[in-house]
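User: Second chain of the day. Same drill as before.
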Amino acid sequence: MTIYFTSDSHFGHDRDFIYGSRGFKSLQEHDETIIERWNKVVRPKDVVYHLGDVMLGADHEYGLNCLRRLNGTIYIIKGNHDTDRRWKEYQTLDNVVTLGLAYILKHEFGKCYLCHYPTETSCLENMTPIKNHLINLHGHTHSIHRFEHGKPYQYNVSLDSHGCYPVSLEEVYEDIRQEVQVCLSYL
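Assistant: Same format as last time:
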């Protein structure tokens, strides 16, 4: 079993500023490509933590059908566009577990604070090993950058920063290790 992360899939969000900025010509191309890329890397027994903004638009059944087609067990953190109605609808799906506004994931590398929003949880001045830091994994910003503002313990898992693919736990920690080394070289 592999653990993956993503956010901001925006299934059914028929706005060019979402699908166009990701390089797609239409909502349908956007959604189908995300599903295809997801299922290319995520196997049925894998786990994906989706950090919010799963779907938008008036056609809720369309967005739910997109979710049904995704491999793995999907743990959803509530984003700013995940309304109470959508939240209840996610809970009707066999492949979805809802977690609330935030969640702390403990694993072999350490601990992650999973939240839709970027949140300061640790600082570079604390020179302890990465395993001793609480790493914030987030989405929301739609930035193509995985790290912003010199904060190596805030990591953007959104589709925008990963070529519209989910990102594995191992890749997240390798990126963080590299970024910490870069930041330390400037101190």
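Residues 169-186 form the longest helix (18 residues).

User: Great, on to the next one.
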